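Re: adenosine-5'-diphosphate structure - here you go.
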Amino acid sequence: MDFSDLALSSKILAAVAEKGYIKPSPIQEQAIPAVLAGKDVMAAAQTGTGKTAGFTLPILELLSRGNKAKANHIRALILTPTRELAAQVGESVATYGKELPLTSAIVFGGVKINPQMMKLRQGVDILIATPGRLMDLYQQNAVKFSQVEILVLDEADRMLDMGFIRDIKKIISALPVQRQNLLFSATFSPDIRELAKGLVKNPIEISVNPENSTAKTVKQTVIPCDKKQKAKLLCHLIKENDWQQVLVFTRTKHGANRLTRDLEAKSINAAAIHGNKSQGARTKALANFKSGAVKVLVATDIAARGLDIDQLPQVVNFDLPNVPEDYVHRIGRTGRAGADGFAVSLVSADEHKLLEDIEYVIQEPIERKITEGFAPVNELPPSRPIKPFKAKKPKKVKHTHNEHKDGQRSSNSATGHKPKSKNTRHQVSGQDKASNKKTGKPVARKVHPDKAKQQGKKDPYSASR
Ligand code: ADP
Ligand code: MG
């Protein structure tokens, strides 16, 4: 199938071609016609498979056929769990819609609210928002929902993990009853199905990959090592392998800061990105990493979902995540759109239980390889046979919005063991509203072209896959 078979206007097709896409990805093939038909859609596909264009392209098409947004009104609302993701989705909307007479704006917390209010005054066709800031704007009457035709929840599973359920429900209850609902997620977890019950009507359900599967293009390795050696080992790996761009995940914000300092001390250019950093610092760190000015980006799980760093070759888990599903999302930052990727996990003996949980979720053992000179004194116990995967029952989602910050999932981080608390996955929350509102710059803007950097890219979804 070609994009031209998808009933999209020539202006959208031109923007897609300029981006260098040759064929729609499998999720796009199925989602685009369903959205264009006005149906509610629930779509699950592993990360990096092109979900953004799967909803953005048909939304642009549908909106370009209708009336403009009135003052303070919006016609399509796209909710994302993190600010970075909102910015990224907003960029896609701007890129794909650059030839269309539609406007879009991005709003999220941590930056000044006034410029966002100003932008909304004229009304925008597509608003991309994180839930917390959107609620603030709504409560201050800066945004009106009565003209909303389409609602998208992007990375819906992440949104639930981050404790946004209450805000999402409030927003949904303020929307017109008659509307199209699109729910995009990496997985159809039981919690997602629970949320969907109150949201979508007779949805078309699209699932392209098995739940929690990792991209086949990512080569995964575990390097057993002692905890105290990890920073040294990472420096060694970066230098030895001449890694030029590596995303490193740590469990805590403190750990991310400390590791960044250790790397800098060894003359390796590094920056940290996590929920305690100002939005300005987060944006700058990511931009510098993408441009290559910074070699190592050290992140907490805030960066694990949705972020799309073009051609990122290497991900390192400095610590294993407490929630095994996060492993899948972390390593999904590499090997995107069919490119090769490498994911290395530095695992100390105290983390063996976390490793077991991960191998259970992905249903395969991860190859172990000791690095010469870094053989652990405390050996990692050998891996045990993996039990067949059983889906969990839906949990009652607990409202812990803004009580916790990212990276604090573990109530027992000293041991690295998974806390037994029932609601672990829902205790992480809203860095969206939490931080400083002083630094920011306007983020709302008119749709405008972004550079078409992907010219000449090979078709990653061709028959060879
Ligand atoms: P997801 O939301 O599923 O994690 P994204 O929408 O972020 O994935 O897309 C992942 C990458 O694939 C992006 O760099 C995007 O530009 C690229 N991409 C999307 N659709 C196509 C396509 N049809 N052909 C080639 N590349 C694509
Ligand atoms: Mg996405």
